[in-house]
Amino acid sequence: MKTVESDDPMSEAMTGIVPEDALLIETGDETHAHWGAVFSLSLSVVGFIIAELLPVSLLTPIAADLGVTDGMAGQAITTTSLMALFSSLFTATVTHRYDRRSVVLFFAVVLVASNLLVAFATNYVMFLAGRVLLGIGLGGFWSMAAAISTRLVPASMVPQALSIIFGGVSFGMVAAGPVGSFLGGIIGWRGIFLAAAVFAFGGLCWQSLVLPSIKPTGHAKLSTLFEILRRPHIGVGMGGMMLVFGGHFVFFTYVRPFLEVVTGVNGHGVSSMLLAFGIANIIGTSLAGGLVRKSLRYSLGFTPLLMAILATALVAGGTSLVLTAACVAGWGFAFGLIPVAWTTWGTRTVADEIESMGGLQVAAIQAAITAGAGFGGMLLDASGPHGAFIGSAVVLYLGAAIILLTLKAVPENGEAASYGH
Q: What average pLDDT does this structure show over 378-383?
């Protein structure tokens, strides 16, 4: 790793600002792989996902303790999502002069603070303030994750690094529901958030030890976001990505009503199937790096096609317990590839503005999640669980068609796209 001494090292250490002439970690450094740093980022991902999803399993006790309705307590998810959307768009611009190590550590501190604020909230306003902090940290961290991963390992190993980082999503999803529900009955919802703060603090300590200094790249201006969207293939790719994530959340948000009404399983059965989904998702994420390296385009296009086929199979044969269990697990495996594949696409197609592209992708995914959940809810109310799953299949078939038929200029094997300018 190449470094250049600063004229004022004490000032740099205190502010985190990187001197203009500093050469810290270069993109695609073929001689260094900071796997410890990659795993430390994955630990923070677990912490962010757990904190984001805990209110789902703790909704009733939170509402009762704070003296609000379940619906008001549920706004914790919406508040976090909206703040994450805005944070993801503006993080690269606001922090464009700062060492990326300092930025990541800042968001790790925000994660700890948000959990503590929620745990000690004496009223609803304090509770929401903690969730606002979480959204700021969540959106900012995700907007940096892809860019940082390209600087920590050789270019050819980026898909593997992304699969490790996004593996934290799978572990977080598996842990948040069962662990939150089980331990919440023992130590209370405040105790759960205190435990989440301790977990996040552990991640912060690890990152402070293993994360190297990383020089910011790109121009990171607000106008850069619009310039990226005007590049060839980017608009089509972003549209396809939003359809894929939106189609997934039409399915995933309303999988429980389908399992209960159509398949006829009880609460224990639902938990078992969701656990199988999570385990399969972990496996899919762990294999995503190798599959993406073999063919990014096919990973982008055929994975949503597989998910659409699974949704169709559930509509046709969802009364079969065995078929439903296989399809739900298969869906979990397939979705494990999606974040890794699309993040890899972003780092390769906009290699010169990875941080801004990361912010755009996070914002687009947050918008797709909101739209998908809303669209699925309307279909559920109009025609039941079958309607929601049919809608999911249609959206995913459309996304797969757009990706496979129109998104043909996809860079492979770790090489950046040549059509980006």
A: 86
Give dist(CA 182, CA 49) in Å, integer.
Answer: 17
CB atoms within 10 A of CB 350: 26
- The model carries a pTM of 0.73
Whether the Cβ atoms of residue 407 and residue 233 lie closer than 8 Å to each other: yes
**How many angstroms separate the CA atoms of 151 and 27, rounded?**
5
**Which residues touch 189 (CB under 8 Å, ≥6 apart)?**
54, 58, 61, 62, 65
Q: Which fold has domain 9-210?
A: Growth Hormone; Chain: A; (1.20.1250)
Please state, in angstroms and as integers, the Cα–Cα distance from residue 254 to each residue in 270, 378, 385, 389, 395, following that order.
12, 11, 7, 8, 15
With 0-12 CB in 10 A as exposed, 13-18 as middle and 19+ as buried, what is 27? Answer: middle
Return the domain boundaries, the chain.
9-210, 222-406
CA-to-CA distance for 358 and 146, rounded, in angstroms?
6
Cβ–Cβ < 8 Å for 319, 264: yes
Shortest CA distance to 360 belongs to which of 242, 246, 201, 262?
242
Q: If you average pLDDT over every residue of the chain, what do you get?
A: 81
Identify the band that residue 3 occupies on the pLDDT scale cut at 50, 70 and 90. Answer: very low
Q: Residue 69 burial by CB count (10 A; 0-12/13-18/19+): exposed, middle or buried?
A: exposed
DSSP state of 394: H
DSSP assignment of 317-339: HTT-HHHHHHHHHHHHHHHHHHH
Contact (CB, 8 A) for 50 and 176: yes
**Which superfamily is assigned to 222-406 in CATH?**
MFS general substrate transporter like domains (1.20.1250.20)
